[in-house]
Amino acid sequence: MKDKLSKSIWVLIWIIAIAVLTYFFVFYRLADSQKVEPIDESQYSVYTGRNVYEYWRGTLPENQQQLYDELKEAYLQFLPTFSTQVEGKITVKQMSDVYTALYQDHPEIFWMDSYQAVSTLTDNINKHKKIELYYAYTEAESKEIKSRLEKNYLKIIEEAREQTTDFKKIKLVHDRLIQTTTYTKYGKDEVHEYQSIVEIFDTGNTVCAGYSFAFKFIMDELGIDSIVSRDVSHANKSNNHSWNMVKLSGTWYNLDITWDGEKSKDDVIAYNYFLEKNDSFYRTHKMQEGIPTNEE
Fold first, then answer.
1. Residue 227: which region, alpha, beta or left (left: phi > 0; alpha: psi -120 to 50)?
2. pLDDT at res. 31
3. Statement: residue 274 has pLDDT above 80
4. Is residue 117 within a helix (H) or strand (E), and if so which, with residue range?
5. Where are the chain's structural domains?
6. Which residue from 36, 76, 97, 113 has the highest number of Cβ atoms inside 10 Å of its Cβ?
């Protein structure tokens, strides 16, 4: 009797194990296997993500660039999940690199919050891996926020377009961001607003991330190549910092609007960290791996 009961228990265990494995390897992995595709430009409800200079995308290997494109399209379409079509394995660390590249390249996608690569039996990300996306704002909220922000950023963009050279455009944007904003510390529940273009264009309050993302956002609108560069190596996150690089007449230069803003007094704009080459700028800043050289 005990032997029969023991065999029955083992049979039940094997049935459960097979069911679980079948779920993970077949049903679960293929449950959301629809790949994400670009849609017609008129169907994007907030921004299209096009005409954006994607420097950090270009630093990724080919299969990670494909995941970057999928992730971008999914966020632009406010999809709750998608399944990657990437061939080969991408590690959790590489997935983080992809997300960071997208975050730095696309400040206009201000509703990006986080993601979760739903596990099967491994942490690697490959074809049919389900990605869940999380948002700081709903699609409706994002549309409403954009309508508030554009009242302020369009003024700067329109004024910059009236300038006759790229140098004058860059200088004007640098100056207007300093003149129209105030460096302000934020609370725990305000992280996303300050670490994006939202607060700087909404209330005029910001931190270094706001300055650098706002500058990149406007440079994209003006068709001038620019990147956000960051030093996020500190254990104390309050010491982390971000700034920009911009291409002028074929040469890359650095500028730190935050630090220039701190040095500006009354109506006198400081240019201590404006259009500096790497050899001088990185005496005071930590160089992020993969930034352009001044010769590019």
1. beta
2. 47
3. yes
4. strand 112-117
5. 32-135, 141-281
6. 76
